[in-house]
Amino acid sequence: MMPRIKILLFSICIFLSWNFTSYGQSSFFSAGGAHTLSLANTGTMYDGISSIYTNPAGLVSIENFAFDVGYNQRYNLSELSTVSLGGAKNFGSGVFGLSVSRYGYSAYSESKIGLVYARKLFSNLSIGAGFNMLNYTIDQFGSSNSFTFEIGMQSQINKKLSIGAYVFSPEVVSLTDETEIASRFSLGVKYKMSSKADLYVDISKTINRDPEFKFAVDYRLVEAVSVRFGGNVTQESIHFGPAYKMNNGLGIYGGYAYDNRIGHSVGISLTYSSN
């Protein structure tokens, strides 16, 4: 790659990921491929394997085993892509999961490895927690590793309404003298609008940033096919994507987003569940 192009891409990566405080601009928060992209990153109330990236409490809906492979490319640049892998298994006493994600390219990258656990406390309340190793690497500057944790909960209020909360890195973690991972908190609501449509609403807050207001709808056209759409009001982005779930447990998901300030992003996810 030509030196000038490397410098340009490196500068873009730094701009998009500086201080790791903007949701969806770091691999620590953008893993999940089409799941997070098509549903406008309303991750507090996801369930199943997709929740391994956004709130581990949602893993309790996994009855046996599930895994996910996701890819997210931002602004039509392969160098600004996130690859994510996640798997979880129900052992009866709870669900254990492992996730891995990587953002960037050879000159600049962010990586996360997370081990999570989730279980039901009561019939209408589930909790989840995870321990994470985070890596930040810049070519010719070296790399830095740090450790942090996350915790979340989900509660079903009635047949239509569920609420949840999630905290990532409750304490600020320093990667370098000038770079840190700020704490992030989110509150979420899932409302069953009808037998075919679910509404997700999320409010997230990263330290030293304004709150983000996000919403999304998952509408089932038929049993196997859904259409998802939503938006991030704060960042002025719109999101869309189809979902196809096969009878054999496989699922294929697509995601698209348009950010009014920077441009287009696309994502894809493949999942399997042996429930």
Verbal overview:
This protein is mainly β. It has one domain: Outer membrane protein transport protein (OMPP1/FadL/TodX) (Porin). Helices cover 9% and strands 56% of the residues. The chain contains three helices and 16 strands. The chain has helices spanning 3-17, 27-30, 34-38; strands at 65-74, 81-90, 95-105, 108-122, 125-138, 142-156, 161-168, 173-174, 180-181, 184-192, 197-206, 212-220, 225-232, 237-245, 250-259, 263-273. The strands form two sheets. A 14-stranded antiparallel beta barrel has the order 1-2-3-4-5-6-7-10-11-12-13-14-15-16. β1 (65-74) and β2 (81-90) form a beta hairpin. The protein is globular, with a radius of gyration of 18 Å. Residues 1-12 and 14-27 have low confidence and may be disordered.
Using the coordinates shown, work out and report the CATH topology. Porin
Low-confidence stretches at least 5 residues in length (pLDDT < 50)?
Answer: 1-12, 14-27
Q: What is the CATH architecture assignment?
A: Beta Barrel
Could you spell the SSE succession in H and E letters?
HHHEEEEEEEEEEEEEEEE
- Integer count of domains: 1
The mean pLDDT is 85
Q: Kindly estimate the percentage of residues that lie in beta strands according to DSSP.
A: over 45%
For the record, what CATH class applies?
Answer: Mainly Beta
Observed structural traits:
275 residues; mainly beta; Porin; 14-stranded antiparallel β-barrel; two-stranded antiparallel sheet; 16 strands; globular; disordered N terminus
Task: Walk me through the topology.
Elements: H1 3-17, H2 27-30, H3 34-38, E1 65-74, E2 81-90, E3 95-105, E4 108-122, E5 125-138, E6 142-156, E7 161-168, E8 173-174, E9 180-181, E10 184-192, E11 197-206, E12 212-220, E13 225-232, E14 237-245, E15 250-259, E16 263-273
Antiparallel strand pairs: 1-2, 1-16, 2-3, 3-4, 4-5, 5-6, 6-7, 7-10, 8-9, 10-11, 11-12, 12-13, 13-14, 14-15, 15-16
